[in-house]
Amino acid sequence: LARGSFPSLSNFRLARLRNFRRVFRHPAGIFFTRGIARAETNEVSSLSVERCEGASFLVSTFDIGDDELPTFYEREEEFHIVTAPVEELDGSDGGAGLLCLSSTDEAYLAKHGKQKFDQLYGAHGLTSIWGWEGEILPCRVYCRHCVLAVTKAGQEVLDDFLDQTFLWDRKTKLREHLERDPSIMSELPPEDLRERYGG
């Protein structure tokens, strides 16, 4: 998954991120553009990270060249990109890395303007990215893609992803969501997106 986004990455390893949690909480315009969002069931959510004292989860860390940063920022345009410290699996200092943190609609508009918002979100009937109220569920194709990707890293990483990733209510674990609707893991992407969303 990481190498698909960063072809020249190096020093790939697992680490622990503390005082943040993973949440499916915001719609991604790209899911609508690519035809994998299910607006009728609110299965349109992407994954982000938010501050949460005492929480922690496993992350992948790696090094990239400065020349890959502009593409990264462009691809993750809705997020607030911050630098956060990570901990090596043995508990030692793991340095710091870039993190896709949840943001606000106001910050997005200030950075990108209303025209881009209307193009990527408004055109699909969305009036907010980060101010969504009520139930919003993971985009099925994207959720399956994430689970397949972490499965490759082993059982410990998979268990961490399923138990330390939450739905919009911050209570329901991803594991519970998949147990309630196991058909998500059979949700194949469109043919032209099989490689992109194949885990």
Outline the structure in words.
This protein has 199 residues and is α/β, with parallel strands linked by helices. Helix content is 30%, strand content 31%. The chain is built from eight helices and six strands, in the order H-E-H-E-H-E-E-H-H-E-H-H-E-H. It has helices spanning 2-5, 29-33, 69-75, 105-112, 114-120, 140-151, 155-163, 174-180; strands spanning 10-27, 43-63, 80-88, 93-101, 137-138, 165-166. Strands 1, 2, 3, 4, 5 and 6 form a six-stranded mixed β-sheet that branches. A hairpin with a 4-residue loop joins strand 3 (80-88) and strand 4 (93-101). The radius of gyration is 17 Å and the shape is globular. It starts with a helix and ends in a 19-residue tail after the last helix.
For the largest beta-sheet, the strand count, sense and barrel status come to:
6 strands, mixed
Rg over CA atoms, rounded to whole Å, is 17 Å
What are the low-pLDDT stretches, counting only 5+ consecutive residues below 50? Answer: none
Give the helix tally. Answer: 8
The general outline is globular
Keywords:
199 residues, alpha/beta, six-stranded mixed sheet, 30% helix, globular
Question: What is the secondary structure topology, with strand pairs?
Answer:
Layout: H1 2-5, E1 10-27, H2 29-33, E2 43-63, H3 69-75, E3 80-88, E4 93-101, H4 105-112, H5 114-120, E5 137-138, H6 140-151, H7 155-163, E6 165-166, H8 174-180
Parallel strand pairs: 1-6, 2-5
Antiparallel strand pairs: 1-2, 1-3, 3-4
Short description:
By secondary structure, the protein is an alpha/beta fold. It has helices at 2-5, 29-33, 69-75, 105-112, 114-120, 140-151, 155-163, 174-180; strands at residues 10-27, 43-63, 80-88, 93-101, 137-138, 165-166.
